């Protein structure tokens, strides 16, 4: 069996590096503007979006960790910080003494509602305002094709 690595061609290497740079710079810029405008980190925003997308504003701890794609320990530490800031609360699960719900608080809901318009404007300005309909379709298809290969397609 041939163990020779399948090195990237110069074009593939150029595209891969541009993709990594784009992803890093995009998340840095979005995060910076979100923090400056709303005092929320991208992580805070992600947690709050997931909670406010549910009808009662709460999710089981492990379900939320899966939704934001974090390990249990990272989730636990981040939720503890958000609880201290009054953005979320931790509620015991009546059906499972070991489980817990994470719920958005009124303060957390107010924070996400204030941040969302600015956040969407930043995303629109940095990404969508500069793509043609054909490029948007291509980006969607490419993203879903890659996600399908990593097992994350929705």
Automatic annotation (TrEMBL):
It comes from Marinactinospora rubrisoli. SUPFAM superfamilies: Winged helix' DNA-binding domain. PROSITE patterns: HTH_MARR_2 (PS50995). InterPro entries: HTH_MarR-typ, MarR/SlyA-like, WH-like_DNA-bd_sf, WH_DNA-bd_sf. Pfam families: MarR_2 (PF12802). This is MarR family winged helix-turn-helix transcriptional regulator. It comes from the Bacteria. Gene3D superfamilies: Winged helix-like DNA-binding domain superfamily/Winged helix DNA-binding domain. Residues 12-148 form the HTH marR-type domain.
């Amino acid at each position: 069996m041939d163990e020779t690595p399948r090195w990237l061609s110069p074009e593939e290497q150029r595209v891969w590096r541009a993709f990594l740079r784009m992803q890093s710079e995009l998340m840095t810029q979005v995060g910076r503007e979100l923090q400056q405008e709303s005092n929320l980190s991208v992580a805070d925003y992600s947690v709050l979006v997931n909670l406010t997308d549910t009808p009662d504003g709460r999710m089981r701890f492990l379900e939320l960790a899966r939704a934001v794609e974090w390990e249990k320990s990272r989730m636990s530490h981040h939720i503890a910080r958000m609880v201290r800031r009054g953005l979320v609360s931790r509620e015991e699960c009546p059906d499972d003494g070991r489980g817990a719900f994470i719920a958005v608080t009124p303060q957390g809901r107010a924070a996400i509602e204030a941040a969302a318009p600015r956040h969407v404007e930043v995303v629109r300005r940095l990404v969508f305002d500069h793509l043609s309909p054909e490029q948007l379709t291509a980006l969607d298809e490419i993203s879903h094709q890659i996600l399908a290969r990593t097992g994350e397609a929705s």
